[in-house]
Amino acid sequence: MRAVILAGGKGRRLAPYTITFPKPMVPVGDMPILEIVIRQLKNYGVSHVTLAVGHLAELLTAYFQDGARWGVKIDYSREEQPLGTTGPLLLLNDLPENFIVMNGDVLTTLNYGELFRTHLRSQAALTIACYRCNTRVDLGVIEFDGRMQVTGYREKPNIPYDVSMGVYVFNRDTLASYAPNTYLDLPSLVQDLLEQGKKVKVYLSDSEWLDIGRPSDYEVASQRFQMLREHFLQAEQPLESLPGVAE
After folding, report:
1. Domain ranges of the chain
2. Is a pLDDT exceeding 60 seen at residue 240?
């Protein structure tokens, strides 16, 4: 099974940590975030990882080399100019029918195997792993209709919303109409797929998921990883042989 990890961003929100380190190399516990990701993918049967690199790529290639240390094949695709969150995939001409794509700074206990199996069963063009968040509003929220008549009042409610976890499963055909070196971000791709009538599915997960966008988030993530290290790095039997899984 193949995974492409997007590891070329500059991680500006996490400065100053990312001034001299690419964001995926920032350590969580005793290892870089990206090493945790690669170990997890290996546990779920991924045998080939492509790192899409750009900013400070030399540090990534020097650390991960060919992946032999982790029992996976690692190769690299370098974007010479920013191509967005999906554009780097257009540089790859050897992608299997279905493959995982994810950000290189994702800290989660997501079951990648179940995500992949769900994608195959649905025959979707694209599956997006999502996490349900809740934000507490510390004010009274008024609901009213078009006649300005109050229909409800909620005091300090929790508002649920669903966010992308930065983990996806692609069908290769989703990229067929785009030329290499095209700038393409994920929202534009999703909109294009919807306009074409293609199936885009959500995989809603209740797994642990931590955003590491800001220094305060990074501190929380480091603490959670130390507390739940075995949970983050637990192994699963590799995926059984299914259509679309093989390289």
Report:
1. 2-130+163-232
2. no
